[in-house]
Amino acid sequence: MSSTLKIAIGSILVGLAVLALKTLAWQVTGSVALMSDALESIVNVATAIAALVAIRVAQRPADQGHPYGHHKAEFFSAVLEGVLIISAALLILREAWFAFQSPRVIGDVGLGIAINLGAGALNAAWCWVLLRQGRRLRSPALAADGRHLLSDVVSSAGVLLGVGLAVATGWTILDPLLAMLVGVNILWSGWKVMATSLSGLMDEAVPEKTLAAIRDIISDKASGALEAHDLRTRHAGAVTFIDFHLVVDGQTTVADAHDICDRVESSLKARLPDAQITIHVEPEHKAKHSGVLVI
């Protein structure tokens, strides 16, 4: 079992534990703000399950029907996460509005805050794992899950502070107001997750820093060639697709041109291990005198 799958399974287990704790905190206090926190945890579990399914699909090898692999499945999962997050936010806003019209008295706040604080600490620790491993493993599904949990951690901290203030001041109206703020924050988080994932589905190029590294490698390792042009990149999950035209002297043999391509591919994969590279070799009269000049 891959590291990505193990982390995805861990997300489901952590999500269930946090959901149980936050639900208990809500039942103890009757706070609508703590209820909104528990509702978001339901989304956490659902999105963790969606991420696990997407990661399993994304790791399937290429086949006749999908010659470029199944890597984009993770982007679909992240979009689904965004939809679920937005749905939860709208549900929270609805409940907060009802509570705003009829404010409720908060119950055993000390015990409720203690339970919710424990759930928040567990979420924060797992959020750090997801964000770190999502970047390391280049998994959009894990990264999206981590960004969502980060939003959950922030909103949970705000909820605890607000509930404490509502009890300390006696202003019960603070409870539904705080739930509304949580809902708006979650709504924004869901939109950001969707926007990031849609860019991957639209074959967005790699970040400028990565593109600069690719250009430098081609320039440095393609000695024997004249230039490289029409460089294009895109990413799908952990895989980066790179293709470009490599111009060589007209007298270069096929074997020598192949050696140049092998050298460039090897260096690019040392920098981007999961890269899939396509190089089109052209004679010198095809040079455009632009793009990447070979050192």
Keywords, separated by commas or semicolons:
295 residues; alpha+beta; Alpha-lytic protease prodomain-like; Alpha-Beta Plaits; 2 domains; 4-stranded mixed β-sheet; elongated
How does this structure look, described?
The structure is a single chain. With about 300 residues, this protein is α+β, with helices and mostly antiparallel strands. It folds into 2 domains: about 5-200, Up-down Bundle (Alpha-lytic protease prodomain-like), CATH 1.20.1510.10; about 210-295, Cation efflux protein, cytoplasmic domain (Alpha-Beta Plaits, 2-Layer Sandwich). It is built from 8 helices and 4 strands, in the order αααααααββαββ. The longest helix has 30 residues, at about 140-170. The protein starts with a helix and ends with a strand. The model has no long low-confidence stretch (mean pLDDT about 80).
Helix-strand blueprint:
Elements lengths: L2 H27 L2 H27 L14 H29 L7 H29 L2 H30 L4 H28 L6 H14 L3 E12 L2 E10 L5 H18 L4 E8 L8 E2 L2
Parallel strand pairs: 2-3
Antiparallel strand pairs: 1-2, 1-4
Helix pairs in contact: 1-2, 1-4, 2-3, 2-5, 2-6, 3-5, 3-6, 4-5, 5-6, 7-8
